[in-house]
Design goal:
3 domains, 5-stranded antiparallel sheet, Chloramphenicol Acetyltransferase, OB fold (Dihydrolipoamide Acetyltransferase, E2P), alpha+beta, single chain, 6-stranded mixed sheet
């Protein structure tokens, strides 16, 4: 049986993707669900799985090639299957090779600072991964290709020495990142990366098309914090639990009881999902992404803690799976770790709602006529008025509050 591997569409705005690395060679055996390639999209690196087992017979696009969504990029088939139909690049769409060598002409001339020679790369050792590839973010890698900058000659300033966008821009300007600030009184025009363009387009679409309404509530996290400390300090072999893990668990339970908030608004129709996949917002050097913890409602608090750490790590290293990138049904965006009191977030289309979360603060409260202190956390639900109403939003958010204020329910 012949199985065509195509460039997947990781979101409605994705039009093309770049093949970073093939993980299978022609002739290798492939099992269903096995990771066969790593691709780069506008917002992240994603791993592609095989939908069928067989033999990895042929690649129709090479590493570094940028191809349109829906293009056939490889063939998995039985050893005796006839692949003559795929000779001579007979794919649905032609692959467009990305620039690979610094000697090739750049698509755009590198910007030149006043009174300076043309940009040159900084000759310092570049960080490499265990397989010898230079460690660079997707945006940095694309920018370097567009301007013929040699990544191996750049020293990264990102996490663990990773090359990020500012490092490539500094190399183009012939300076170090610390020297790239504009002079006093000067104005610098910064070209937006594809990731930022995607974020701008999607957030503009959301605010333009989805009539947002907002509901805010302060949640008393005193008991939740006490339970979290007990789990982390006293229970052996239990995953370390964060405040966000408890919020995600509470959101998943509440979503199961209020399924309208686990819906997508697509083509003027409401698609209500039974699978609950809670996205968590993760800040990268290049921008914000929100991959999903799949099947969140059927995971324990400890499993959510493990899954969230694993998801964040793979998002930063560029190893997300397609379903994690596209399968989310609700989002939690927590900025509490930045010392921020609260956040009113923009819905991630086509989802129906997003929960913005601030930091936990020790705050004076009045109880039974007495002034006491409590650990309060500000939350804000942003929801699509086309799908739900304010009363439903209030019930949903109060359900999350009830669960977090009686945190033993998160362990059931």
């Amino acid at each position: 049986m012949i199985s065509e591997v195509v460039m997947p569409q990781m979101g409605a705005d994705m039009e093309e993707g770049t093949i970073i690395k093939w993980l299978k060679n022609e002739g290798d055996k492939v099992d269903r669900g096995e990771i066969i390639a790593e691709i780069e999209t506008d917002k992240a690196n994603v791993e592609i799985e095989a939908f069928d087992g067989g033999v990895f017979r042929r690649t129709l696009a090479g590493e570094g090639d940028t191809v349109d969504v829906g293009t056939i990029i490889a063939i998995i088939a039985d050893a005796g299957d006839d692949l003559s139909a795929y000779e001579n690049g007979a794919t649905k769409q032609a692959a467009t090779p990305a620039q690979k060598a610094p000697s090739e002409p750049a698509k755009k001339p590198a910007p030149k600072a006043a009174g300076k020679e043309p940009a040159k790369a900084i000759a310092q050792p570049a960080p490499a991964s265990s397989d010898g590839r230079v460690r660079a973010s997707p945006v940095a890698r694309r920018l370097a290709q567009e301007h013929s900058v040699d990544l191996t000659a750049i020293s990264g300033t990102g996490p663990d020495g990773r090359i990020v966008k500012r490092d490539v821009e500094a190399a183009m300007a012939g300076s170090t990142p610390a020297q790239t600030s504009p002079a006093a009184g000067a104005t610098t025009t910064i070209e937006m990366s594809k990731m930022r363009q995607t974020i701008a387009r999607r957030m503009s679409q959301s605010k333009r098309e989805a009539p947002h309404y907002y509901i805010t509530v302060d949640i008393d996290m005193t008991e939740a914090e006490r339970l979290r400390r007990q789990l982390n300090d006293a229970v052996e072999d239990y995953p370390r639990v964060s405040v966000n893990d408890m919020i995600v668990r509470a959101a998943a339970i509440s979503l199961a009881r209020h399924l309208m908030f686990n819906s997508l608004f697509v083509d003027e129709q409401v698609q209500q999902h039974s699978d609950i996949n809670v996205c968590i917002a993760i800040a990268l050097d290049e921008g914000l992404i929100a991959p999903a913890i799949l099947d969140t409602a059927n995971k324990t608090l400890g499993e959510i803690a493990d899954a969230s750490r694993d998801l964040a790590g793979r998002a930063k290293s560029g190893a997300l799976k397609p379903a994690e990138y596209t399968g989310g049904t609700f989002t939690v965006s927590n900025v509490g770790m930045f010392g921020v009191e609260g956040l009113i977030a923009i819905i991630q289309p086509p989802q129906t709602a997003i929960l913005g979360v601030g930091g936990v603060r020790t705050t004076p409260v009045v109880r039974d006529g007495r002034i006491e202190t409590a650990d309060l956390m500000k939350t804000a639900l942003s929801a699509d008025h086309r799908v739900t109403d304010g009363a439903q939003g209030a019930q949903f958010l109060n359900e999350i509050r009830r669960l977090l204020e009686s945190p033993a329910s998160l362990l059931v």
